[in-house]
Design goal:
The chain has 235 residues and is of the alpha/beta class. The chain has three domains: 2-67, no CATH class; 83-130, no CATH class; 133-231, Zincin-like (2-Layer Sandwich), CATH 3.30.2010.10. It contains six helices and eleven strands. A four-stranded mixed beta sheet has the order 1-2-4-3, with helices on one face. The longest helix is centred in the middle third of the chain and has 31 residues, at 120-150. The protein binds zinc ion (ZN). Zinc ion (ZN) is lined by residues 198, 202, 208. Residues 198, 202, 208 line the site of zinc ion.
Length: 235
């Protein structure tokens, strides 16, 4: 295996290639995010580089998909290039200076614009605000979707609060309020639905007894898979 790399925009793609009996070039992206290329005998390293560059968008997307399933992320530093999650996908952070302060989520990037020279502290404030705004919208939308099913079990419509919680994804108060962890917006929607449906079930069953799990199973038959997947997003 020969190591090589290409630069695609601001992204460096490193890969290893080997020659094989194949007639055409083939690229594989592996779950550890490594990239390998199989090339017909006689293909020049330049031709391989050109091929990798043409497929760079696909490689980058595939890596992001795998990254989404990696269990832990290091502490965030809020610098350009590091990845942040939103709804189960990985986005690359880009800090830049501009006319107005904003956060935009587009084509794999979370682009944070600050009026002054961007700093990690300012980026964190803007990004936290962006997450909070989007969490409220997404959670409300998912609550309405989940409630359509929960309603059939005579469950009341809850009030909802979003806040940063330590070690829990959500909680339910006997006053009929569901609290959701702001970080939950980093997980995919089917995991968000699991947490909401779980808390809705507490309306009918306070404790995690057999009746609780039976009710949750009726409302969301695949809840165990969703819960297992959500565990991958614990920070
Ligand atoms: Zn519970």
């Amino acid at each position: 295996m020969h190591p090589d790399s290409v630069t695609w925009g601001s992204v460096e793609i490193t890969y290893r290639y080997q020659y094989s009996e194949r007639k055409t070039l083939a690229i594989s992206v592996h779950p550890d995010l490594s990239v390998t290329v199989k090339a017909p005998h006689g293909t020049t390293p330049e031709a391989i580089r050109e091929y990798v560059l043409r497929r760079a968008g696909w490689i980058s997307r595939s890596q992001r998909e795998f990254e989404g399933y990696l269990p832990k992320q290091p502490p965030r530093r809020y610098v350009s290039g590091e990845t942040h999650r939103y709804l189960g996908r990985q986005y690359r952070l880009k800090l830049e200076q501009g006319e107005a302060e904003s956060v935009k989520c587009l084509r794999g990037y979370l682009r944070v614009t600050t009026k002054a020279e961007p700093t990690p502290e300012r980026a964190k404030v803007l990004l936290d605000g962006w997450y909070r705004t989007h969490a409220k919208v997404v959670f409300h939308e998912r609550l309405l979707a989940c409630y359509k099913r929960a309603e059939r079990e005579g469950i009341g419509f809850p009030a909802m609060t979003v806040r940063q919680m330590g070690s829990r994804w959500g909680s339910f108060s006997s006053a009929g309020r569901i609290t959701l962890n702001l970080s939950l917006v980093k997980a995919p929607k089917d995991c968000i639905d699991y947490v909401i449906m779980h808390e809705l079930c507490h309306f009918a069953e306070k404790h995690h007894g057999p009746r609780f799990w039976a009710l949750l199973g009726r409302l969301m038959p695949e809840y165990e898979e969703r819960r297992a997947k959500l565990n991958l997003y614990a920070e």
